[in-house]
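Project standup — Tuesday

K.O.: blocked on the structure for the chain from last sprint. Re-posting the sequence here as requested.
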Amino acid sequence: MKSFFTRYQQGECQQVWNELYTLGPVVRKEDMYPDAERVAVETMRRVRQNIELLIPRLEEVGYTFGYAWAQEEAFIGELWIARQPTRYTPPPPSISERIQHFEEQAGLLPLSVRAFYREVGGVNFVGRHPSWEHLFGASQKRGIALTNLDPLFVWALNKDIFTDYSEWQRGEEESLYPLPIAPDYEFKYYTSGTGAYEIEIPNAAADAMLLGEWHQTTFVNYLRICFYYGGLPGLQYISHLIPDELAYLRKDLLPI
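H.V.: unblocked you, prediction finished:
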């Protein structure tokens, strides 16, 4: 019987992750854990490579990363702008120790999230594309719920998350901590929204549901959706209007 890792390398990416997710905490069993972890690590190495491919491609098609647009908004302070992470933040050399320290406090992370912190770090694709936003705005009049392109965004495991956990621990009696993964699509652009995209921990499974995110899916599948739409999931609403640009963005991205 082929291992999960072998099947993953042979192209059964989505099927393997679906099976690992269904197993729940069983993936932590001694005879299964190394195989499941190898899948998680390989997945996030591919995620990192896809991010590195997409950044220059998005710029080539007219997307401007960052928060230059925010400087024109009187209600957005310079401090908020300065605190936003850059487009890609590699993990620090001490990331393994940081993950261990966090899990000792808050409990186990899903294998997918742990591997993301270790292999990717953090990512923030927030930016603007006037032409796409114009198309998106026209489509929105036909009943689309989103107000922007909801760029790919995952916070790194930094001191802010440790602080958030400490504050939650003092004020809550619930057993599961809502680990913040990303701002919702509104707050990515400093507009009041419904709250962060979150994953509840402790979670001993291979993957977890990404709560609050509009696709109502798992963390790995959220990343998969992001890459399918060139790092901007909201593009699904205008994908029929920009087929050439999307084809260019998707070209040679590694399957996850």
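K.O.: great, moving the ticket to review. The longest helix spans residues 33-60. The chain has ten helices and seven strands.
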